[in-house]
Each structure stands twice: as C-alpha cells, then as structure tokens.
Automatic annotation (TrEMBL):
Organism expressing this protein natively: Solemya pervernicosa gill symbiont
A Gene Ontology molecular function term of the record: phosphorelay sensor kinase activity
Enzyme class: transferase
Alphabetic keyword roster: Kinase, Membrane, Phosphoprotein, Transferase, Transmembrane, Transmembrane helix, Two-component regulatory system
The protein's Enzyme Commission number: 2.7.13.3
Phylogenetic classification of the source organism: Bacteria, Pseudomonadati, Pseudomonadota, Gammaproteobacteria, sulfur-oxidizing symbionts
Ranges that cross the membrane: 66-88
Any matching Pfam family: HATPase_c
Any single Gene Ontology cellular-component annotation: plasma membrane
Histidine kinase domain segment(s): 108-326
Protein name: histidine kinase
Amino acid sequence: MLIYPSGEDLIEVTAEGPRINLDRHDYRLSAEERSRIMKRIPIPGTAWEAVDMHDPELFSSYRQQLLLQMAVILLLFSAVVMAMLYSLGRAEQRRRMAEQHKDDFLSNVSHELRTPLTSIRGSLGLVINGVAGEVSEKAKGLLDIALNNSERLSGIVNDILDLKKIESGQMELEQSRHDLVMLVRRAIESNHSYGERFGAEYVLLEAPDSVEVEVDGNRILQVMTNLLSNAAKYGARNDRVEIVISVKGERVRVSVTDHGEGIDEAFHERVFERFAREGDSSIERPDGTGLGLNISRVIIEAHRGEIDFDCAGRDGTTFYFELPVS
Ligand code: ADP
C-alpha cells in the first residue's frame, strides 16, 4: 500500500483504491501493522512510500513444513547420537568387565602362588645351607640361581597383592614406635647380598643416634628395600650407594644416593606412576615391573610423609622420603 510517512503513517492507497477523500484519521497504520512492515520504498517525486507488509498466514504452511523437516532431522540426529552413546557405553562396560576379570585373575593367581613360593624358597635355602646333606659347588651355584629367581617372583607376587590392597583401600598400617635409624640399618643389612650382585656397597654416611617415628616397620623396610635395590640396579657398576638420615625440625629425611646415569628429564613426571619404566622394551634394562616406587609412595603418604627424588643431569640420583618425627 502507499502511505504518507508523516510520523503517523497515513494510508493513502490500498488495494481498494485511494483513501484521500476519506477521514484520514481512520486510516493510519496500527502498531501491530507497523510491526509487520518488511520494506519501505520511497516513491520518487512524491512524499509517499510504498510499504510492503508480510501476511502472517502467508508463510505459515511453509514454516510448518520447515519445522517438520527440522523435527525429523533432530529426531534422526538424536537417534544416531543415542545409538553411538549406547554402543560406546557397551564397549566401556565390556572393557571394564575384562579389566575386572584380569585383575581378579591376577590377584587369585598371586594368592595361589604365594604359599608354594614360600615353601620353594624355604626348601632351597635349607638345601643350599647343607641341611639335607652335602651340596657340590656346581649344584650350589644352580640352587643360588633358583633361589634368587624365586625371591624375585615372590617380590612381584607381593607387589601385585599390594596393588590390589591399595585399590580396594585395604592396605592397613600396623603403626608403632620405631627407631628409624635401626630400621634403616636393618634394611641395609638385609639388602647387602642383593647389592653385591651389582657390586654395590651400601654406606650409611650420616645418621643421628636414633630418631623415634610412629610407623609400620615392615612397610618402611619395604620402601627402603625398594630404594636400595633400585640404587644397586640403576646405579653405576660397583657403586658406593650413600645413605643419609637427617632430622629437620619435626621431620626426618632418609636419602639414598647412587652414581648411575640418573633419570631422563622426559621421564621425571612418570617415575612414581604404576608400571612406569624408563625407555622402551627394546632397551636392555635391569629386571623390574615399575610397581615398586608407586607402592612406596602410597606407603609413605599413608604415614603423612612424602617421597621424591633429585636428579641433576646424568650423574646419579638421590631418592628420599620424609616422615614426621614422633
Ligand atoms: P622397577 O625398578 O621394578 O622398574 P620402580 O617403581 O622401583 O620399578 O622404578 C620405576 C622406574 O624408575 C625404574 O624402572 C627406573 O626407570 C626408574 N628408577 C628408579 N630408581 C632409579 C634410580 N635410582 N636411578 C635411575 N632410575 C631409577
């Protein structure tokens, strides 16, 4: 229609013809009509404007069609997403079940292995020590190998069982008062022969007379065994592994230093992760599972302590843990 845009938008001509002779006040656009204006085109040489308004009915069937199409697309899209989520969920469920079966199998086998292993180790020890009669040097050498390997196997079995205990929150500490210096001395003594296999000598470089701590003695011995055996395994050949015990205020620190190749910087943040071992399987490395330090960390943290390492470049590593003095 043509309108006169005076501010009131007076209607001049509609489809029924000009309104010029009628009472203009009856023919102004209502607010609702104004809101439907799509375009205003000035008519050259006049003050009029051609106004195009949209008819709400005009697009309704088109809009309905569009909405229907959109609804169908949305429905299909949701169905595809749901199907994907469902199959992902099933795969995740299957993966978790397989993981659970594997874990259960591992821990059952480990349990079953523990008793026969203990008896094998005991018997081998007795035979080596001549309890069952004289043993030739050649046979003793072979029996030593068997004993070492059954000890290694027993260590792995215990690590796996510890892991299971940690996962199920069943690793309980039997804490009582201990002299940490005594515990460290005992650990050095009992790891002496393991160190000898690598030519490593454990030296207690500095220690106070005694330091009282409230700990589970066996668990602290386990951590010490892990640190001492790692120092022998990853230290230099014929290394002198130095152990220092120092008290700082309310904390006591035990550190174990070797002079091996250290730890590559890229591996630093993974050292305490489960099954983490430096390098890949193509490199020849000392035996190990990558569980020891992970378990050690759980043990030390359960004692409200902390465990970490210093490693400057490629010449040696110091692993240390700190515990509260009791
Ligand atoms: P494992 O010795 O059975 O592999 P650990 O958890 O005790 O497992 O150690 C994890 C890894 O950390 C080792 O495989 C080794 O790569 C690295 N590591 C541990 N101690 C030392 C050390 N003293 N010097 C160099 N690397 C070490």
